[in-house]
């Protein structure tokens, strides 16, 4: 087992262009400098299958699936306070819970959970046994989804979604940036980028982004040679703003406005406003780039088992057709669309 790069000295860059094609499974996450081969590409990336969005209708594609199983923290909060949790508070719960999983030493924890399960069997206490089975299921699923499959970060999939944009040295605005992963992946692909990350949960700047490993390699492009190049967090120009998206003072000054897992947290009545957030800060020829989790059986299972980690906020799972309709109906032309392991992705321009 390789050392977790989280534990390496901060200034050390463990991967270089000599490592292209390499992937390593570290205790907390996978490092992946591979490109897709054709078989993998066709299995996990499906791009641009709809020719004319004007022909797609809600009647044909149905509605998104609402995830109704909430975290026990949310349920307890609402029971104690006697009122519905506010979105801002629910995001604070979510970000803390999610981050705690990203920093786990997964193999060690799997071993401990197995031992706890065996010990619980000896108690003959059904509640105790049920609880340890639940914990074991969560760590096993997290291991598979994040560490083995790399479904959350999915650098190869994200690169496939984001490639081919007509921009250089872009200014990128990341709405609801959390740890900021996708803006960094874009900045590796389009060198010279200036990133503005925005999240109203201060914990995202102080902890999720701050603790994102400085040793994690992003595969991108070398501007001068056109070859692939490995970048790290500290190579990028990043300004992290803690504020509500509704308060942002910017004009139409960004080449890319990005969100990852934002649209699906708003019921339909609010979706036009969310789409407007993606329009109002874009330069005239700029790109809105959005991803949302896919409506598929394995994702439903994931959000069910991981409810305590993931489900503090209103959440929908949708198909690429449903997501595309929200984007198209709210005044955007869809330039690229597709889905990767667990997310849909759309690159669009305001009409
Ligand atoms: C689901 S997360 C994004 C997914 C992310 N990739 C992750 O790993 O958690 C959405 C983020 O948007 C932020 N957010 C939601 N509404 C916001 C608003 N009105 N202003 C600023 N940030 C907001 C939340 O705090 C949260 O960190």
UniProtKB/TrEMBL annotation:
Cite the EC number.
2.1.-.-
Q: Where on the tree of life does the source sit, at the highest rank?
A: Bacteria
Transmembrane portions of the chain: none
BP term (GO), one: methylation
Q: Name one Pfam family in it.
A: Methyltransf_23
Stored InterPro entries: SAM-dependent_MTases_sf
This chain's protein is named: Class I SAM-dependent methyltransferase
Alphabetically sorted, this entry's keywords are:
Methyltransferase, Transferase
UniProt keyword Methyltransferase, yes or no: yes
Keyword Membrane set for record: no
Molecular functions (GO terms): methyltransferase activity
